[in-house]
């Protein structure tokens, strides 16, 4: 049973950087069939795709965030990570990691999410 | 960027009724349209992939269809556990985008 578990700081100050980690269990990031992504959901709002990565490091980014975001994988730890620079209040959200069933595909397995609040 | 517009934004229905949600894409996306269910503070759950393909473990009362740039999610015979917000998602072109969501209330 695939499980994804996000972890993060909870609270970040405006203008600082946010780092999140997603630990995958019950499966391997190295699996060539899947991609791995980050999505977010501001309070009371809908879903926004942030970034997606393949085990070889190739990545796709949402253009609205591309200048501030880096996604990466650590196969030795079976983890994916997200770094978001220069955060503002607009970055306050629940951040989810999810498995994607291919490069241009659906998200078929999601973590429980980690809540991030940006304080001024 | 492809915009997905869901309608309605909110539905209040009684058990056993039929629920229909529409997702309209701003341009052609083929069949690369997926549906998710999100209950309360839980994470989203994939319920339909590629417009009409079923997902293992999802009840058969959930179905999807497509006509051009209009996509429909149908629940035949609503149950109390179907109370949730439903989102459509396109994976045809970057950035991948979601509809704004449809909240379904069961009376």
Shape label of chain B: globular
**Sheet having the most strands of chain B:** 7 strands, mixed
Mean pLDDT of chain A: 96
Distance between the termini of chain A: 40 Å
Distance between the termini of chain B: 37 Å
Helical percent range of chain A? under 10%
Rg of chain A over CA atoms, rounded to whole Å, is 13 Å
Strand content of chain B: over 45%
What's the helix-strand series of chain B? Answer: EEEEEEEEEEE
Instruction: Round the mean pLDDT of chain B to the nearest integer and report it.
Output: 97
Helix content of chain B: under 10%
Strand coverage percent of chain A: over 45%
The total of helices of chain A stands at 0
Radius of gyration of chain B: 13 Å
* Total of DSSP H or I helical runs spanning 4+ residues of chain B: 0
What's the arrangement of secondary structure elements?
The complex is a heterodimer of chains A (120) and B (107).
Chain A: E1 3-7, E2 11-13, E3 18-25, E4 35-41, E5 48-53, E6 59-61, E7 69-74, E8 79-84, E9 93-100, E10 107-110, E11 114-119
Chain B: E1 4-7, E2 10-13, E3 18-25, E4 33-38, E5 45-49, E6 53-54, E7 62-67, E8 70-76, E9 84-90, E10 97-98, E11 102-106
């Amino acid at each position: 049973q695939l499980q994804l578990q996000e972890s993060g700081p909870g609270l970040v100050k405006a203008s600082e950087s946010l780092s999140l980690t997603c630990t995958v269990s019950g499966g391997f990031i190295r699996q060539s069939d899947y991609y791995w992504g980050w999505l977010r959901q501001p309070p009371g709002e809908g879903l926004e795709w942030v970034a997606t990565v393949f085990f070889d490091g190739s990545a796709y980014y949402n253009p609205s965030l591309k200048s501030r975001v880096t996604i990466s994988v650590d196969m030795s730890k079976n983890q994916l990570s997200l770094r978001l620079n220069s955060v503002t209040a607009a970055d306050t959200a629940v951040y989810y990691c999810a498995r994607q069933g291919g490069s241009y595909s659906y998200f078929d397995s999601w973590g429980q999410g980690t809540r991030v609040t940006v304080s001024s | 960027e492809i915009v997905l517009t869901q309608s309605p934004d909110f539905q209040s229905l009684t058990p056993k009724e039929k629920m229909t949600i529409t997702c309209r894409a701003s341009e052609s996306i083929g069949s690369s349209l997926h549906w998710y269910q999100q209950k309360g503070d839980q994470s989203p759950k994939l319920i339909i992939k590629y417009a009409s393909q079923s997902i293992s473990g999802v009840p058969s009362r959930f179905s999807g269809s497509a006509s051009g740039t209009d996509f429909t999610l149908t629940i035949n015979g609503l149950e109390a556990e179907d109370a949730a917000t439903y989102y459509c998602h396109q994976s045809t072109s970057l950035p991948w985008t979601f509809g704004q969501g449809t909240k379904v209330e069961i009376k």
